[in-house]
Amino acid sequence: MTDAAPPVADVDGVAVPTGHLIGGAWVASPTTFESRSPLDWDEMLLANVARGDEVTADAAVAAAVQGFRVWGHYSPVERAEVMHRLADLIEANNEEIARVECLDMGFLEESMKLRLVGRGAANFRLYADLVVEHEDRRWDAKDMDNHVLRMPAGPAVVITPWNAPFMLSTWKLAPALASGNTVIHKPAEWSPLTAALLAELAVEAGFPPGSYNLVQGIGSEIGAALVSDARVRRITFTGSVPTARVIGKAAAENIVPFTAELGGKNPLVVFADADIGAAAKKAAWQYDDSGQVCLSGTRLLVEESVRDEFLERFHAETDAMVIGDSRNTDTDIAPLAHPVHRDRVDGFVQRARDNGDVIVRGGHKMPDSLHYEPTLIEPKSNDSEVVQSEIFGPVLTFQTFADEAEAIELANSTDYGLSAIVYTGSRERAERMGVEIRAGLVWVNTFLVRDLTAPFGGCGISGIGREGGEHALDFHADLKTVMILDNTTS
Q1: Residues of the chain with CATH 3.40.605.10
Q2: Residue 459: active-site member
Q3: What is the CATH number of domain 266-444?
Q4: What pLDDT is recorded for position 42?
Q5: Is the pTM of this model over 0.85?
Q6: Catalytic member of 101, 102, 109, 294
Q7: Residue in 101, 261, 373, 467 annotated catalytic
Q8: Labelling 387: which of 67, 162, 178, 398 has CA 20 to 30 A away?
Q9: Among this protein's residues, is 373 annotated catalytic?
Q10: Looking at the chain, which residues constitute the CATH 3.40.309.10 domain(s)?
């Protein structure tokens, strides 16, 4: 780190801090990395962001340890007051946050304004209220008064992904802070800027120094130093399976509880008794934001008898979608977030082509941009790479099934288990599929509608642990049982 104050970048009229927030102060690093816009990669350099290292990580954890002595002793009501102030500030800065995230990650600006920034504020309000409303469990047994308490655990490292970075940061930071933990937030280096805006608003909201820390940098550098620090008492991560394996080993070394949300290869199952038009429209909308959504139903599984009708409707819906600039309100399909990711997505498609899988539509990079054609692939077998591996782009696969038993078999045929979408006109079938599909979340006849207090997480390699509501608060706490003999006098 350096003593010099870090510069502030002007991102389309929004002042964005480019340094680290450590112990309540903004600090710089001697080296930086570039944040470029996927809307025009070659021409739009948004900021040079501080590139943290082991020294930065050490300072941030030390600040969180010191801050815990204060924030960890705030009452739930006092913590909630600060968190509600932050939620108010998020709502007041909706347009600025949306504008920066659109440029930094490529996310549709209108979607940010209408949904995701507000969801970020809602996350802080939810956990602020839950921690105040929580009632400790009490019961009598064996002549003892038993009382279960939640204790703040200590400093928590929060590592967030490059897709939907603002909303997913709030989703992870809010329960950690509501629990009384201090945080060290490490956002992804591909989309770091709205994390800086959020940290700036946290300072304005009144979080005490050291309770809320932000470090920028490359995951393999500063991230590795953070998760291996023995002073850290919780680690929560959203990202890739390979990175989770590395973090999990570091967490195990220090006996630190670790939760991970790692994406999926989610089925979208359509039965012949479903509203085929609604199912086809929802399937086409899995291309929204170029498929860079972990919950997307990327494996289309359709009952054989409605194959042709479904495909006709699906193609019509996809043809109507607009590929364009994420700042335009009529754009439906955004660019991919980074050239490296675009080439990774294209690699999957080209290998599928070489493998003999049928490219039903799309399958090419679009010229002079980071857009990729909405692509549908009919694999030659269920073992094809495009069926079994997460692509995280606008690439869907299409398979048919003969009956419900085969639909279940195909739905459960990957190592992932994050979510599933089922379209059927039968309530009985809906209940059966909800039971039989192995996933952390199953939607029937809808998608992306969720109660934020419900558990969220995956099975298999889709993750470890559960987030959401009381589940997240329990993860971020150390539970303690106090047992007092009933004859103890006051």
Answers
A1: 8-262
A2: no
A3: 3.40.309.10
A4: 95
A5: yes
A6: 294
A7: 261
A8: 162
A9: no
A10: 266-444
Instruction: Please name the residues in contact with 469: beta carbons below 8 A apart, sequence gap of 6 or more.
Output: 126, 130, 452, 453, 454, 455
Residue 265 has pLDDT above 90, yes or no: yes
pLDDT value of position 488 = 63
**Tokens linked to 477:** 């706490």
Provide the pLDDT confidence category of residue 142 given band limits of 50, 70 and 90: confident
Q: How far apart are CA 310 and CA 131, in angstroms?
A: 46
For residue 468 the two structure tokens come to 């959401």
Kindly report the number of other CB atoms within 10 A of residue 313's CB atom. Answer: 19
Q: Which fold has domain 8-262?
A: Aldehyde Dehydrogenase; Chain A, domain 1 (3.40.605)
Quote the CA–CA distance of 158 and 272 in Å, as a whole number. 44
